[in-house]
Amino acid sequence: MALAAGIVGLPNVGKSTLFNAITSAGAESANYPFCTIEPNIGVVDVPDERLELIHKFIPTDRIVPASVKVVDIAGLVKGASAGEGLGNKFLGNIKECDAILHVVRCFENGDIIHVHGQVDPKTDIEVIELELAMADLETLQKAADRTAKKARAGDKDAVFEKEVFARAIQALEAGKPLRTESWSPRELEALKPLFLITIKPVLFVANVSDKDLDGKHPFVAVVRAYAERTGARMIALCGNLEGEIAALDPADRAEFLREMGIAEPGLSRLARATYDLLGLQTFFTAGQKEIRAWTIQKGWAAPQAAGVIHSDFEKLFIRAEIYSIDDLVKHGSEAAIKAAGKLRVEGRDYVMRESDVCHFLIGK
């Protein structure tokens, strides 16, 4: 799967710090605006305890988790849609992503410069959201102008597209991100080629201090309320602390988490939330060579899932033999699952379920 989530926000809110912690990729992080210019790209493993659960019953040479692609995009500023701060380039990078991780500063620290002089999550969010909306508005207006001539000539598709574009423009001018509107499949198909930004799913990441790991500060409440009001999601974590945790050896990391009273790193929650934000789900294959988590879109059928393993498998798909992890835990082995009549044989129309463990029969 080539889907990607882009990390956005004002300069100096902790985007690159968070990216470094997520990916250990060494993206530059410094206390001045536009430290990041070219987007940094990393692939993040999605923590999944089900892999180890399968491994308890099926010995294997290696375990391969699912992953998501994360892009660290340079900080936007007020006026970015008009070219301020190299804004057009950065907005182009966001258009290429499938979902947005919007990092919002929710901590006070006089040693770290804030581009507006003071920490104000509501204003910070609104600056970014306005610039994204302005970029979408410009894109839609150009598309509407291109479509108008065909619509006047009676082209039915152009007439429909013109109506959809007009509705989208009206929503943006009313201050509504396009993700808050309900769109039919046909309307979404008309909007898709425009790569609109405010229609993408958003996860707000409240970057808190290490004294507020539970996200109780009023700053976080502001972010949460905004997310709920605009059809987005939210998670709170401390970017600096996550960086420290990620830099530790695995054995030291577990001890550090115990001492801090943390059940799991915030980055594990973030990776899973990003995976879900992108509309992804997981199925597994398991054998002596490897146990692997495979990534597919929610709603995909069995042949499409097989095609993720190898492109030819979708065309040559015959059937799938599938069982659940719960069945594996209950019966203890694949042979016992089959003996108990719990091994399902599914055809081309089968819609994959979360946690399916599969063997695909492929023709020649």
Output the keywords.
364 residues, alpha/beta, six-stranded mixed sheet, three-stranded mixed sheet
Task: Tell me the fraction of residues in β-strands, as a range.
Answer: 15-25%
Terminus-to-terminus distance: 25 Å
The helical percent reads: 40-55%
Number of strands: 12
Query: Helix- and strand-based class?
Result: alpha/beta
What is the N-to-C order of secondary-structure elements (H for helix, E for strand)? EHEHEEHEHHHEHEHHHEEHHEHHEE
Question: If you compute it from the alpha carbons, what radius of gyration comes out, rounded to the nearest whole angstrom?
Answer: 23 Å
Q: Report the principal-axis shape.
A: flat
Mean pLDDT: 86
Query: Strand count, sense and closure of the main sheet?
Result: 6 strands, mixed
Strand numbers in spatial order across the main sheet? 2-4-1-5-6-7
Count of DSSP H/I helices: 14
What is the structure about, briefly put?
The chain has 364 residues and is of the alpha/beta class. The chain has 14 helices and twelve strands. 42% of the residues lie in helices and 19% in strands.
What can you see in these coordinates?
The protein is α/β, with parallel strands linked by helices and 364 residues long. Helix content is 42%, strand content 19%. The protein contains 14 helices and twelve strands. Helix 7 links the parallel strand 6 and strand 7. The longest helix has 32 residues. The relative contact order is 0.14. About 5% of the residues have low confidence.
